[in-house]
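Ex. 9. Protein: Pyridoxamine 5'-phosphate oxidase family protein.
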Amino acid sequence: MTPRAPYHHGSRAVQDLVGVRELADHVGRSIGDGIRPVAAAFLELQPMLVIGGADPAGALWASLLTGEPGFVRATGPHQISIAGGLRRADPLAQALAQETQEGNPVGTIALDPRTRRRMRLNGRARPTPRGLAIEADQVFSNCPKYLQKRELPGVAAPGRPAAPRHGVKLTGDQRAFIAEADTFFLATVHAEGADASHRGGNPGFVQVPSPHELTWRDYPGNSMFLSLGNLATDPRAGLLFLDWVTGTTLQLTGTARTEYGDDGTRTVRFTLTEAVETQRASPWSWSPPEYSPANPT
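Predicted structure tokens for Pyridoxamine 5'-phosphate oxidase family protein:
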């Protein structure tokens, strides 16, 4: 994996299947391993960061990090630091607290609903006395497609997150929550690293046909097919849903596969292994959304 050749054979296979290899090569030139000044400035304004990786048992999770703006910052041309780290009860906390020679593969995404901007940084994480440090392998931005606009009118709410609730199937309330979601985050992995991405749409774009299964349409994007390419080589996946008003998070781990329709549509089918719900996981309360004009109706 290098800045000029960012795709492994899984992503290449999907690009060829869809017929976008040439476009993917063009877009892939935007992927580097350095953090430019504009990217560093963007990170320091963010009150949250999503991180994806594997727990000690190999299950994949997407987790939420929050703090006052400045808790994530670039500490060099290829490194960011995160103050505070994950909550001790988070499914990824144990893995990211372990010191390894090469670091733990992680994917991160900083998404700013206020400006409909997002930035992804994938690399290797190691614990520090103050939280986490991540050495970047890939740094790039995505277009604002399918990002809902939200404002952050208040200050962080006091109090601590509730104890997480674990389950092996979705409750009725959790299914209803997912069915009304307009945003979630997706963690995937490949042999050389991890990735965290965003999925968005109008409420109902994620369907919950059973307590053990989710499906969603894969909307046209940047043609990189990093997430679907990863799933083509490793079906493990982690999903994160956030209640933007109350701060409750719903983390799901399991496996996912992509179904390709004769009409050119793509549907991802996720099978649940475990769910973790945490009330007040985020101290931030965002405004109601202004839906992206790119969202399919």
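Check your answer against this statement. The radius of gyration is 18 Å.
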